[in-house]
Amino acid sequence: MGRYVARRLLQMIPVFIGSTLLIFCMMYALPGDPVRAMMGDQAYDPTVVASIKKDLGLDQPLLQQYANYMTGLFQGDFGTQIASQRPIADVIADAFPVTIRLTLFAFTFVTLVGIGLGVVAGLRPDTLQDRGLLTLTLFLVSMPSFVLGFLLQYQFAFKWQVTTPTVTDSTDFSQLALPAIVLASLSLAYVARLTRTSIAENLRSDYMRTAVAKGLPRRRVIGVHLMRNSLIPVVTFLGIEIGSLMTGAIVTEGIFNVRGIGLEIYDALTRREGATVVGIASLMVLIYLAASLIVDLLYAVLDPRIRYA
Amino acid sequence: MRGAKSAKWVAGAIVVALAATACGGNGDGEGKSKGSGPAGYVSIDVGEPQKPLIPADTNESNGSYVIQSIFTQLLDFDSKGDIVYTNAESVTTDDSKTWTVKLKKGWKFHNGEEVTSKSYIDAWNWYANIKNNQQNSFWFQDIKGYDDVHPEKGDPKAEAMSGLKAVDDHTFTIELKYTMPYFNYKLGYTTWAPLPKVFYDDPKAFGQKPVGNGPYTFEKWDHKKLIQVKAWDDYQGPNKAKNKGVQFKAYTTLEAAYKDVVSGNLDMIRQVGPTDLPKYKQDLGDGAIEQPYAALQSLTPAFYSKTFKDIDPKVLQGLSMAVDRDTITKTVLNNTRTPAKSFTPPGVKGNQNLDTDVFTYNPAKAKKLIQEGGGVPGNKFTIQYNTDGGHKEWVTAVCESIRKATGVDCTGDPKPDFATDLEARDNDQVKGMYRGGWVADYPVNANFMKELYHTTAEANNGRFSNKEIDGLMNKADKAKSLDESVKAFQEVEKKLVDFMPAIPLWYYRINGGHGKNVDNVNVDFHGDLEVWAVTTK
């Protein structure tokens, strides 16, 4: 187990370096000079542009820039934003908690409601409630998140005025509820359907029949025997979903004015703030890697036959 | 059991992860204030400034809003574009070359330091110095000795510009390299603000927490969310704050800001987004703002391109007459623009009604002119624009209009974003025309000609070059007085019609609004809301 974890952690290093290099090259390949763009379309002085680029090391060749960036990164220095001259670490520290809060909210919602709905429907396949769930999830899957976002915003904030239309304070969970639900809706549908299918299938399996035949109480049959086996695909999905929820928040963050990582990376991209994009993206890579590691470890809990040496 | 053991391990990991995020969650100090902020404060949808708050390092609108509230330069303009003295008692000249500035006495920075001639001279020298990489440093290029502190290559040869001399604590002179009758108008730009001594100790820290001499004192900057400034009781200028303070709130979309104005969470919005334009007058009632300001959009031919190299100006005149400005501004642009009738927008000194029909839609004459001029090479051209700025719709409409009227094929040449668009312009890679836009830096007609169409002008991305026009402009700059210079530039403007360095399309209009909690919301000449004059109800 310990060795398995260590190996996985070691594997993260080349993945991390590879992905950052890739993103770095992509940013470099994009047309448009960030320093020049900062000057706008009014008059400007090329001497100043050249001088700023020299100070930031942007006049060096790509690999040299990457080497400089990585050296800085290992010393805990994410670099400096070109326009605002703020340390990127500060920028990330401002935006990350917001997105994490939003994501955790959405994730909890997805897990509880999604699995809940899936279990309810899966236990009684082909009944009215099951069909109801299938319709609802079909609706959620096919609805683009910005449509749902605007719709809910209009209904809840303007018509019924139960919440604010935009998030002015991201620590206030009542304000975050709406964006979190919108963000969660797509995954919710997947999780519910995945759980439903898994449960419905396993209901007919041999070990279920044995468990029931043994005379075990229904709570134990469903709670331990059925759930534990049915949740493996769901957990896999949920683990990967943490990452996509975080990066997928761009649209939702835009609609509800949530100042999170999604908007930050979008801004940075349009302004060609390479270092910011790479910084945020590398953190995302780390989160994905960590999430998939946790998922793999969770398998062992759900199914003791799966072992890691 | 193996499973149980790993369960503990995983549970531990989850607890650690949760704890870590919880720490992150509580770490940032977000304000709990709701609605429009502290009592008596007004709020406006001004987003995060791109750069630190240093007057000479900002030329985008978000930053300059904040800087204008914290700093006051020598003079300012009223809504008609006339000079209003703020920190200066007077700015005078006898020969348009040496200017004498007299400061009002008793002015102080927010930290109590007196505003003297030195506060200005030191600041300007610092701004102009190439080592400090100030974005607006070229604004000082007219001053004698600028090239010493800002050489094209290498280190500066001097620390100070020789053209700036203090006479006494409240008088100083500015000597220019050449005559410039409207130089005093340039002084109204925020870049010319003075700096207190504390700035030089740590410019970087100052940029996050500025100390100025303006109507408001800096309170806090919650990055990407809010900048808050407080009215300064000791302010002596004419633009003293009529409210208790201002919150500049960052919004990600115009729609989100608009919703907050309607629901009362925000007091003012600078621009209503396209989706809300049809109904904003109904929603806001008296709060709806619709006013023209000194900005102009045009199509600029790249005179180095295959299409427009050595083009007969008649062709450009014809293309200009093929654009149905009235219809496009009304429909596609939702009445947010006013059709252009000259090369200068109203609101700048010297704006005139040109005696020409070049700006009037006339398909028959357009066709004729294009034929007389030898036609557009290949009978087609492109208009370059950036897709991230809402230009696609009108570019398509303009092309459609030209195609219908003249049969010349016109297509958009989209660039994914502004940065790419600018790069193509800078590197002379525009294939046909590009969309040009210009907002007045100072309300004089020269600003819309000298900076755009003079051969040596930095913003002349179409590379228009005409000896006759250059000569006329140089002559206009040598005029003895502002009035003469304005008149001379009016003559230049009349001449421009013969050469068509660009096809003016329309003047900008601000379509903003305010909620029910505030009053007295006015627009200044470059389209900014005058925040200081806003009163709360």
UniProtKB/TrEMBL annotation, chain A:
<comment type="similarity">
    <text>Belongs to the binding-protein-dependent transport system permease family.</text>
</comment>
<feature type="domain" description="ABC transmembrane type-1">
    <location>
        <begin position="96"/>
        <end position="299"/>
    </location>
</feature>
<keyword id="KW-1003">Cell membrane</keyword>
<dbReference type="Pfam" id="PF00528">
    <property type="entry name" value="BPD_transp_1"/>
</dbReference>
<keyword id="KW-0813">Transport</keyword>
<dbReference type="GO" id="GO:0055085">
    <property type="term" value="P:transmembrane transport"/>
</dbReference>
<feature type="transmembrane region" description="Helical">
    <location>
        <begin position="276"/>
        <end position="302"/>
    </location>
</feature>
<feature type="transmembrane region" description="Helical">
    <location>
        <begin position="100"/>
        <end position="121"/>
    </location>
</feature>
<dbReference type="Pfam" id="PF19300">
    <property type="entry name" value="BPD_transp_1_N"/>
</dbReference>
<dbReference type="InterPro" id="IPR000515">
    <property type="entry name" value="MetI-like"/>
</dbReference>
<feature type="transmembrane region" description="Helical">
    <location>
        <begin position="176"/>
        <end position="195"/>
    </location>
</feature>
<keyword id="KW-0812">Transmembrane</keyword>
<protein>
    <submittedName>
        <fullName>Peptide/nickel transport system permease protein/oligopeptide transport system permease protein</fullName>
    </submittedName>
</protein>
<dbReference type="InterPro" id="IPR035906">
    <property type="entry name" value="MetI-like_sf"/>
</dbReference>
<feature type="transmembrane region" description="Helical">
    <location>
        <begin position="133"/>
        <end position="156"/>
    </location>
</feature>
<keyword id="KW-1133">Transmembrane helix</keyword>
<dbReference type="GO" id="GO:0005886">
    <property type="term" value="C:plasma membrane"/>
</dbReference>
<feature type="transmembrane region" description="Helical">
    <location>
        <begin position="230"/>
        <end position="256"/>
    </location>
</feature>
<dbReference type="InterPro" id="IPR045621">
    <property type="entry name" value="BPD_transp_1_N"/>
</dbReference>
<keyword id="KW-0472">Membrane</keyword>
<feature type="transmembrane region" description="Helical">
    <location>
        <begin position="12"/>
        <end position="30"/>
    </location>
</feature>
UniProtKB/TrEMBL annotation, chain B:
<dbReference type="GO" id="GO:1904680">
    <property type="term" value="F:peptide transmembrane transporter activity"/>
</dbReference>
<protein>
    <submittedName>
        <fullName>Oligopeptide transport system substrate-binding protein</fullName>
    </submittedName>
</protein>
<dbReference type="GO" id="GO:0043190">
    <property type="term" value="C:ATP-binding cassette (ABC) transporter complex"/>
</dbReference>
<dbReference type="GO" id="GO:0042597">
    <property type="term" value="C:periplasmic space"/>
</dbReference>
<feature type="signal peptide">
    <location>
        <begin position="1"/>
        <end position="22"/>
    </location>
</feature>
<dbReference type="GO" id="GO:0015833">
    <property type="term" value="P:peptide transport"/>
</dbReference>
<keyword id="KW-0732">Signal</keyword>
<dbReference type="Pfam" id="PF00496">
    <property type="entry name" value="SBP_bac_5"/>
</dbReference>
<dbReference type="InterPro" id="IPR039424">
    <property type="entry name" value="SBP_5"/>
</dbReference>
<feature type="domain" description="Solute-binding protein family 5">
    <location>
        <begin position="88"/>
        <end position="458"/>
    </location>
</feature>
<dbReference type="InterPro" id="IPR000914">
    <property type="entry name" value="SBP_5_dom"/>
</dbReference>
<dbReference type="InterPro" id="IPR030678">
    <property type="entry name" value="Peptide/Ni-bd"/>
</dbReference>
